[in-house]
């Protein structure tokens, strides 16, 4: 079974669109989804940006909120412009990293995204994250304790460094093997690429 | 008949994709295309950029050329990565401004884009521009002379200032009335918006 890697930041609004669409699209195409939470902030910093370009560039920022409204209508997704943007996704990302391979991971990621972009909730709030985990029957106490360990913090730093090493400069980013697709607008293209490419080819470097 | 405004820069690679697709899509949807050449450079300068972000951000730049290759394959368009990027589009934009309402305008715009992005030709070269005009039976001498007048230079500066005043921060940009759509990826959305909106509504401010 072919894999689509989905690299995302819980603070990224266009990652929200992909998070809510990818499981169904991948299932229809017979692909396995690998969820890859990472932190976009350190990458923006290496580009010389202290925040999201949607904050730093006013005109683009204004456009993006209107675009999100239209895109959510198109995809029949709920939408509420976050009153804080971008929200601190550190705890959510560490928790998601703890969930690799766990049955609750996909549901957790979707609910955190909905909290941020549909319900305007503070996803940096530990009680909110715990409530989502418990709602999924995942037992929040042990997971959040593990998420706060130095090992988990180091793992998230390593994940973000891996993102940079693979050439990731924004989110969402999809990989089929080494083939990289940027943005929710390329999700369908990435899936089409995977389903028209043999497993061997998708794993090799293309240029 | 509803109108879709298509704001573009001849040096913009994603504008190339839209230029080669918009006439057919608009015709099928019963829309009139208004071609709006402008200069993206002055807008980038106000954002503090001395060149295209695809040049200034290496990782994004590398991605963009691979993306263009895939997008052109998807749309069955010819593609050759320009050996100079972004090319100086000043003369071509001035000529296009002279062509407003002329029967040769759409063909001229497509051929300049093909020269830049399919044949790797220097679109700042007056002989190339003249050849395209003459090939369309447009009589290059008078048009190029008009394009070099102070009046035409001022008109292009005014056009680019209008772009900025309307909130344009990149290209291609589409308008249905005041509703703005950014990027070739939104061309279909813009057309759908026009065809599901009454003429009155499209002309009013939406937010």
UniProtKB/TrEMBL annotation, chains A, B:
Keywords noted in UniProt: Isomerase
Transmembrane segments: none
Protein's UniProt keywords contain Mitochondrion: no
Catalytic activity: 2-hydroxychromene-2-carboxylate = (3E)-4-(2-hydroxyphenyl)-2-oxobut-3-enoate
Enzyme Commission code: 5.99.1.4
Record InterPro entries: DSBA-like_thioredoxin_dom (IPR001853), GST_Kappa/NadH (IPR051924), HCCAis_GSTk (IPR014440), NahD-like (IPR044087), Thioredoxin-like_sf (IPR036249)
Molecular function GO labels: isomerase activity
Gene3D superfamilies cross-referenced by the UniProt entry: Glutaredoxin
Ranges for domain DSBA-like thioredoxin: 3-188
Family membership noted in the UniProt record: Belongs to the GST superfamily. NadH family.
Protein name: 2-hydroxychromene-2-carboxylate isomerase
